[in-house]
Amino acid sequence: MKEKFAQEYPKFQVKIANFLMTQNFDARCEEYENLFNQMSSIAPDDMKVYVEKSPAFLEARNKSLAYMERIVELHRELKALFSLNEEVLGEKYNYDLKEVDALIAKKLQESAYFLKQYELSSEAGRKAIEVVNNPFLAQAL
Fold it and tell me: Which of 52, 71, 85, 91 is buried most deeply by CB count within 10 Å?
């Protein structure tokens, strides 16, 4: 098992390097980190008007923040996984690159799901803000 792992590891490394490059992975990680930090640093007082006038805004904002937090976590986990050397990776995953591939695929699928949910929640939040900012729409509520 170890010998097969050692033979397949260089191909695995090339596959990871190609993935990192083609998906602009490091830049995406940084983008998600920055977005999460921006979102979580908004003071409650800065959102007070929207929260008071639109409970939908607060719900959408909280969901968006939770989704982005999970996206950041997943990307950190992937980044850590990608940085493991051959010895550590082999020991941690029983010298089974198929297991590693499956784990990476699972984390990427989960991230894609949360990105979609984040987009939907963010759109709901934008619509709630639009309603609060538009006196005609707000009056209709």
Answer: 71
